Amino acid sequence: xxxxxxxxxxxxxxxxxxxxxxxxxxxxxxxxxxxxxxxxxxxxxxxxxxxxxxxxxxxxxxxxxxxxxxxxxxxxxxxxxxxxxxxxxxxxxxxxxxxxxxxxxxxxxxxxxxxxxxxxxxxxxxxxxxxxxxxxxxxxxxxxxxxxxxxxxxxxxxxxxxxxxxxxxxxxxxxxxxxxxxxxxxxxxxxxxxxxxxxxxxxxxxxxxxxxxxxxxxxxxxxxxxxxxxxxxxxxxxxxxxxxxxxxxxxxxxxxxxxxxxxxxxxxxxxxx
Length: 273
Description:
The chain has nine helices and 14 strands. By secondary structure, it is an alpha/beta fold.
């Protein structure tokens, strides 16, 4: 299964047996979504509620990976089966959909792809849209198998400061990484985790889609020239998955996500304003 598919591919295969289209649209902190109406979607898409249904809402940190049981139950409620082919998109183009792609990979489901360019590209190419529909589905038989080593903890990141086993790749903007730009969460200082490098997630995109594999390979080689495995981080675990997916298209290393990201790191190190 390809990691990304084009809108033309989706248009040709949207009625395929076992294909499940997931709308993972997610409100982007600090930006107005009015141009990408939050109720606009693709016909037949099922709303993947990343914020409320597929996060651990009891966690002190945003967008935390849910338990295996929660993920399985909520996926089944969306009618997802073991043999489902999942195509994920969002209304920003490429924003929250890679997070969903990664979550299914972590939970052991291999047949999942991101719609390259998402809803904006679908509209740009002249395909029709509809109002987002929230409905119930026949319960699926999806089974989750949580591959916990794919998700790194605060302790893993802290220990890496001394061991320097991994290269930590931060997807936030250069200003936030360098400490010259404010964090969206007003109480936190900006800055970076020791021994990390910066690849802003916008640097892997062009016109709302992923850059070519050759462009991405050049970018990752310039930042991650050693042979270390990669841990991706950002503000709260969303955009880390964008650059992880970009690396998957072009740069073959073992890859992980620090789920708590800068929000957890800054709070635990008391980096408050």
